[in-house]
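pinned: reference chain
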Amino acid sequence: MTVLQHQRSSGPGRMVTSGQASPAVSLWARDVLAAAVPALAGGLDRVVMLRDGHRRLALVELRDGRWLALKRYGDSQGAWTRQWLQRLTEAGFAPPARFAVTPARGWSGIHHTLVTDVARGHAWAHWLRAPAAGRAAAVAAADWLIRLQSLSVTLPDRTDYRAEAQLRRQAGRLADRYPDHATRLLRVAETTHRRLHDDRQAAGPALVPSHGDLHPENLHLTPGGSPTVTAIDVDTAGLRRPSYDVGYALAQLLVASWMRTGSFRPGAGAGMAFWRRWTAHDGAGADAVPAEVARTLMQSLHFELIIYRTARTDLLDRWLDIAEAVLADGLCAAFHTLTTVQEPVP
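pinned: its structure tokens
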């Protein structure tokens, strides 16, 4: 069996691999399959490492050409994720349907590792470089979310996930680290908090099924006029307000666009297509989406500068400019500006 170290990829058939990984990896993969999906353990052909360490992630190819993903957790979270995947697939959100999640094949409690199918196609972020393809992918992604939010499925209430206290805590840590930006950071956090919590104490739209981490790397689309759309990484799935996934996806589109192309234009264009599609269908709770965008941008800054310590201080003004714009002017006006105005050079 071949064990390869993965360099960069977006899925099977598009892998760049080199070097021999530790032989222990092949033994680990075989042991995981033996515990989680015994019928497949003998068919292992090769392993491609995507990430090592305590949160190991690998793709395995079987001798019959099928691919599986093996994701290791630090605790039993993967067992819960398996339940969410099973409930979603039982509700019809599974291949060969056009909109799906990756079915769970098994869970090894000994190894804390979940085994799932591998999503077909390219990550949503892949399509951002071509404007027409990016907008088409965004429409398909919105259709995926509309379908998810319409499902009748039992999931945990996750409205407290990334709750109000976390937003203020993240803004406070950023303000302490970057005092020159403290006023803006704290003002955005307080405005966002008020829009999401203080101003929304009355009952709003009913809770709906939510992915919880709907960024452009977690949706995979196949090429063509009617692409299949498959979600991965549903560890934070649950029931939330409809606006949560929408605002999160829109903000992460801008983040991915800037990181991949050095411009907000592709992400903003795709975001407008996504927004129009979703609001045309129902748009329940759309008034809260700008605040969800701002909250997600604050979270992104916290991850980049506090958690990962990337030293990308150039992101502070860029992310804060967008957060302030969506809060003050609304989503459509802010995103339209991003599609038409040249970004300033820091």
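why pinned: Residues 5-20 have pLDDT under 50 and may be disordered. The first strand starts at residue 2 and ends at 8.
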